Inverse folding.
């Protein structure tokens, strides 16, 4: 999955292209965990991906729509931006 053009104005990043290498979704008790591995993340990117996955789980977006949503670059087609509660960085590798 490659996401483009989600940069925050004034960012020092030269490119807005980020690659997600792995995504894991699993349940632990009453919590649903989403783990994303990528070469970097843009402002609110993880919250948007998580909101989109939530909408897939709720049946609001069909899973097969995801590639076209990404390709379209139309943020309005993706899911909502989830609040940051529970979001944390697990690891950074260089």
């Amino acid at each position: 999955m490659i996401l483009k053009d989600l940069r925050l104005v004034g960012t020092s990043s030269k490119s807005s292209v980020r690659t997600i290498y792995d995504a894991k979704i699993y349940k632990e008790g009453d919590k649903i965990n989403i783990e994303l591995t990528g070469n970097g993340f843009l402002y609110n990117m993880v919250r948007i991906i998580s909101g989109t996955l939530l909408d897939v789980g709720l049946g609001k977006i069909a899973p097969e729509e995801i590639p076209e949503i990404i390709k379209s670059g139309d943020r309005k087609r993706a899911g909502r931006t989830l609040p940051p509660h529970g979001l944390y960085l697990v690891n950074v590798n260089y």
User: Anything to note?
Assistant: The two ends are 21 Å apart (CA to CA). Strands lie at 2-3, 18-28, 31-38. Residues 45-57 form the longest helix (13 residues). The CA atoms of residues 39 and 94 lie 10 Å apart.
